[in-house]
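Treating backbone geometry as a discrete language has practical consequences that deserve illustration. The sequence in question and its structure tokens are set out directly beneath this paragraph.
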Amino acid sequence: MIQTKQKGLQEVLVTAIKRATDEKTLVSFVKQIDWVDPLLFYAAGKRVSFENRCYFADPAQHVIFAGIGSVFTIANSSHKRFQTARDEWDKVKEKAFVQREGYEFGTGPLLFGGFSFDQEKEKTNLWKEFDDTTFSLPAFLLTVKNEKAWLTINQFVSAEDCAETLYNEIISVEERILQESKCALEGSKLTVTSKVEVDPKGWMNAIGKVQDEMKQGNVQKVVLARELKLTMDQHIDSVLVLEALRIGQPDCYVFSFDYKGACFLGATPERLIRKEGEKFTSMCLAGSIGHGNSIEESKQNGETLLHDEKNLAEHGYVVNMIRGVLSEHCESVNIPESPGLLTTKNLIHLYTPVEAKGDANLLAMVEELHPTPALGGTPRHEALKLIRDVELLDRGLYGAPIGFIDDEGNGEFAVALRCGLLNGEKASLFAGCGIVIDSVAQLEYEETSLKFRPMLGALEELMK
């Protein structure tokens, strides 16, 4: 990778074209611009005829980015999918020309996407647009942090290209995008034409099958997920759903991956892993309870959760697993001895923050950590086999790592929860919960109903 400083876009294009060989070379140009609302930027992408878009907001770090267009994708179902993604990205980075005045996390060449939950699960048409590995490098990326904004322009060039022509084309599109980003969001009122829970009785029966395996000592915990299908009277606009999630779930990661006409989006409270330099941060999030009907009841529920043996046991599985992975790959790991509480709009969770120091590869860490017992179970292999056998759902990207990695190897992946898949006028929502030997099927069903609320609430905003 070649770093250039204090050059204009056209100069960088000229240099890259002169040095280009038989293979196309990535040019990534970063500049600071006036503040732009990332959601309006995301919306502008569709109006400027870009099919692929992405959006990622990290509330803890106050970083939001929106990407539109795609100049490069990694889409495959390789059995070595994590390593394949690393290799393909390394190949692009190796010859890339990157112009920036100082590194800023979340800017520059940045791959956004994710991995499917389970590569071995039989696939359905529900996720036909997405592969087991699906990442995209946006043509234009807006990054907003602490009221400052940066625009990254990504473009591949070859030896036959004309720098002046490319430059004029890029600037023309940029101007259109920024102009369209000034337009207010608009949308018409939606009406639900059907709402179907996919076989709730079968899902509760699956809990019994899992508990039979637990009685045999084969597994300790298994996470089972289910699907809620909705159909509207017209196309569901992901921009308006994102707006509702951004307002309604301010303490969560809000994400969207609009790809080939389908859009996977949600508001998840759970980070899988973040890397910036040698600093890794993760979290253990397992065990939850509803708020109740008053502030006092919510406080009491939180205290109950902190002392509930079932939830503490579930949480402990996650802590032990994440501690083990990070201890193997990092020099130092810091994990509190007991959990605290993380409160979102709809639920209260047991929460343990995790920090570590090391130089491990981010995608290698994602591979090691996914899935944690919070989304798979324990032991991992046996839990995943049971999920394949009894779960009535192709999870696709649900419960899987969703996020980004940049040219420096830094990035962040969340766990895709409280989410849904939009396709035209149809929406599939997903929710799951951890099953242990003393779980009560009806209570677990009610917990998943609570976990549908963030996405249901966002969709209901479009019906007003």
About this structure: The two ends are 50 Å apart (CA to CA). DSSP finds eleven helices and 24 strands in the chain. The CA atoms of residues 390 and 437 lie 16 Å apart. The chain has a mean pLDDT of 94.
